[in-house]
Amino acid sequence: IDMLRFAVAGWWAQPMARADATAFSSHRESGFVALVVVGCLGLLIETAAIHLLARHWSPVLANWLLLFDLYGLLLLLAHGHAVRLQPTLLTADEVIVRVGFFWQVAVPRTALVAVEFVAGDLLAAADMLNLARPLLAAPNLLLTFAEPRSIVGPYGIRRKARCVALYLDQPRQFLEAAGFHFGFPTR
């Protein structure tokens, strides 16, 4: 339902931010929007070509392939709109990290023990989740929590992580608003 809501109504919707929160986007300074547009155009061309080719052998198969491709197109459009419409939020009491409609976690600010700059991609760790991947970007911040948190993912998937890597357009402003000191990338 969220996918259809974002794909169809996302064109006209305003970003979802609370009045008591500071919003931090993750789509303006990365190449995410361009990649979504190119992906949608490529998927449209591929859908038309595969549909026309598959119709020669099996019209039923061609229709099923068309449905799968249209579902993929809607998913890509919805993800693009959801990233724009659901920014990461920082309130006086909590940090709400949202990556489109794929991953979401709300953490009390008291449970946030460290926020640091990172440069480049991070090595995978058992207690870390890279939330910059759905944005097709390298993370620029690493949030560390006092204890592992349950992060809700696509289709209700839950994953425990103590560290979350994410990409924000304004990482320095996030650190200043969160009250953390910053320096050079450490990882």
Keywords, separated by commas or semicolons:
single chain, 187 residues, alpha+beta, four-stranded antiparallel sheet, four-stranded mixed sheet, 4 helices, 8 strands, elongated
Give your account of this protein's structure.
This protein is α+β, with helices and mostly antiparallel strands and 187 residues long. Helices cover 37% and strands 26% of the residues. The protein is built from four helices and eight strands, in the order αβααβββββββα. The chain has helices at 2-9, 32-57, 59-85, 171-178, and strands spanning 22-24, 88-90, 94-99, 103-108, 112-117, 128-130, 141-152, 158-166. A four-stranded antiparallel β-sheet has the order 1-2-3-4, with helices on one face. A hairpin with a 5-residue loop joins strand 7 and strand 8 (158-166). The protein is elongated. The termini are far apart. The model has no long low-confidence stretch (mean pLDDT 85).
Global mean pLDDT: 85
Task: Record the strand order, biggest sheet.
Answer: 1-2-3-4
The fraction of residues in strands falls at 25-35%
SSE arrangement, N to C: HEHHEEEEEEEH
Describe the structure concisely:
This protein is 37% helix and 26% strand. It has helices at residues 2-9, 32-57, 59-85, 171-178; strands at residues 22-24, 88-90, 94-99, 103-108, 112-117, 128-130, 141-152, 158-166. The strands form two sheets. A four-stranded antiparallel sheet has the order 1-2-3-4, covered by helices on one side. It has a four-stranded mixed sheet with strand order 5-7-8-6, with no helix packed on it.
Strand and helix map with partners:
Elements: H1 2-9, E1 22-24, H2 32-57, H3 59-85, E2 88-90, E3 94-99, E4 103-108, E5 112-117, E6 128-130, E7 141-152, E8 158-166, H4 171-178
Parallel strand pairs: 6-8
Antiparallel strand pairs: 1-2, 2-3, 3-4, 5-7, 7-8
